[in-house]
Amino acid sequence: MDILKNYIANRWADSKEKQCIDVVNPATREVLGKVPYGKKTKTDIDMAVTAAAKALEVWRETPVMKRVQPLYMLKQLLEEHIGEISRLITMECGKSFAEAKAEMQRGIENVETACATPTLMQSEFSENVAFGIDEFMIRQPVGVCACISPFNFPGMIPFWFLPYAIATGNSFILKPSEKVPMTMMRVFELIHQLDLPEGLVNLVHGGKDSVDAMLDHPGIRAISFVGSTNVARYIYSRGTENGKRVQAQGGAKNPVIVMPDADIEISARIVADSVYGCAGQRCLAASNVVLVNDSKGNIKEALLEAAKSKLTGYGLDEGVEMGPVITPESKVRIEKLIEKGKAEGANLLLDGRNARIPGYENGNFIKPTILENVALDGEVINTEIFGPVMSILNMKDINEVIDFVNRNKYGNMACLFTSSGLTARTFRSRANAGNIGINIGVAAPMAQFPFSGWNDSFFGDLHGQGRHAIEFFTQTKVVIERWPREWSRKF
Ligand code: NAD
């Protein structure tokens, strides 16, 4: 099997690193490819930075209206190939084909939003800030920008950054997750058709060694990272220590609250979709589900039914709603956390361990699981499980809920289901999380809004997507100008 190539200076080239790891389909355990992984990927990064720096010379001077033209073509190419790319996402990442397609759609929407860069990048001008003096601010590109992405959205997350970076005049290096590098390989084949300047966008494979090389490379000016909190914190501190701009989006543990005045059936279905979508491997997956005054257990019953109804299997098979988790190690880790939840006193209402999926006996499957009355002072309640596990808690009122939400060390998302506008307003105002959903299960901001994680879910100032991306990928320059009348007489 061939080793995946890097894409540097508009050419596919072998990595300098000969050591590889397997890219494995998590449902079938079939090896899909071999990805370079080791110390010599540092040399690949050097080569990519050289190419990207060269591309900048002309690109930063290219009018913004011309810089967005390739994005229109990219949107069209991505739309034409969405089925094929989504299939690849399912094969290497495990989510259902429908989920993969929805992911790509979100990616494409970022390309569309970045097409508005000529307007979004416009700046401010004040005439006569003093007599005869004008002042204005312009936005200029930052330079060579790099992105390090996680395994769970191989088709979408690079687009939170890439289209904005190049539209604002930067060049770009992407390092996809070594677990799911094939999706972006195909996307870059399409990008190749855009005939962009050599080195404007580059793809380099690898793991920690290539990331460290990016963090230390003096030629890279900005880093966009999405992944787990520990790595995000590390990327932020090492990157900023080296004088780079860094935006690092991290992990999560999302609370979703169902008030007694919410519609039981609709809320239960949406909450279950949030918990079990992508097998719980979403940074916006509901995890701690708080039922308020559910003394008769009606909401709990509806959640149980919704969880049981999810068809688990290979994401390319008809009707499958939930796929496997990414690796055997993830499966073991999640199963241990379920056991830990029990040991901490929870009732295992639905046990998805030992899942057997006919035809896919070796896959990393866990079926929907529910832990009830998880200990408030235990480990499970604070740990990002990143698997198909719902933890149910019972509380008495909105104040108790808000205290609970605000004790969370993360702050990626908090959602509330209610029919009361007042309760919703109180919640959205007081909950300490950056993405709030009211009667929404996955509060994923659309491309024109920032993906606004807080606390341990984000390190930096400017998030991915929309205007935040435009600001992240540009530096402001303020010019104060005077043209004295007396001087002009001299000419
Ligand atoms: P991860 O942190 O293991 O890996 C992310 C990237 O970092 C990969 O490209 C990987 O090669 C690199 N990496 C891993 N360990 C590293 C290290 N020690 N030093 C340097 N680089 C390293 O994350 P993952 O398992 O791929 O993704 C899942 C995590 O991402 C979850 O925690 C999830 O919540 C989070 N996530 C967050 C968001 C968000 O917007 N906040 C979105 C998607 C996923």
Give every kind of bound small molecule, once each. Answer: nicotinamide-adenine-dinucleotide
What is the assigned CATH homologous superfamily of the largest domain? Aldehyde Dehydrogenase, Chain A, domain 1
Count of discrete alpha- or pi-helical segments spanning 4 or more residues: 17
Strand content: 15-25%
CATH secondary-structure class of the largest domain: Alpha Beta
Helix content: 25-40%
CATH topology of the largest domain: Aldehyde Dehydrogenase, Chain A, domain 1
Helix-and-strand structural type: alpha/beta
Overall outline: globular
| Biggest β-sheet: strands ordered side by side in the sheet | 14-15-16-13-12-18-19
Rounded to an integer in angstroms, the radius of gyration calculated over CA atoms is 24 Å
Overall pLDDT level:
97
The quaternary state of the protein chains shown equals single chain
How many distinct beta strands?
22
Which segments are poorly predicted (pLDDT under 50) over 5 or more consecutive residues?
none
At CATH level 2, the architecture of the largest domain is: 3-Layer(aba) Sandwich
Straight-line distance between termini:
72 Å
Largest sheet: 7 strands, mixed
Number of domains: 2
Structure, described:
The chain is of the alpha/beta class and 491 residues long. The chain has 2 domains: 6-250 and 457-479, Aldehyde Dehydrogenase, Chain A, domain 1; 254-438, Aldehyde Dehydrogenase, Chain A, domain 2. It is built from 17 helices and 22 strands. The protein has helices spanning 41-59, 64-67, 69-80, 82-93, 97-114, 117-120, 162-167, 182-192, 208-216, 229-241, 264-276, 298-308, 328-343, 398-407, 421-430, 466-472, 485-489, and strands spanning 6-8, 11-13, 20-24, 31-36, 125-130, 133-141, 144-148, 171-175, 201-203, 220-226, 245-249, 254-258, 286-292, 347-350, 369-372, 389-395, 410-411, 413-417, 435-438, 454-455, 458-459, 474-482. Strands 14-15-16-13-12-18-19 form a 7-stranded mixed sheet, sandwiched between helices. Strand 10 (220-226), helix 10 (229-241) and strand 11 form a beta-alpha-beta unit. The model has no long low-confidence stretch (mean pLDDT 97). It binds nicotinamide-adenine-dinucleotide. Residues 148-153, 175, 177-178, 207-208, 211, 226-228, 231, 234, 249-252, 283, 384, 386, 412, 451, 453, 457 line the site of nicotinamide-adenine-dinucleotide.
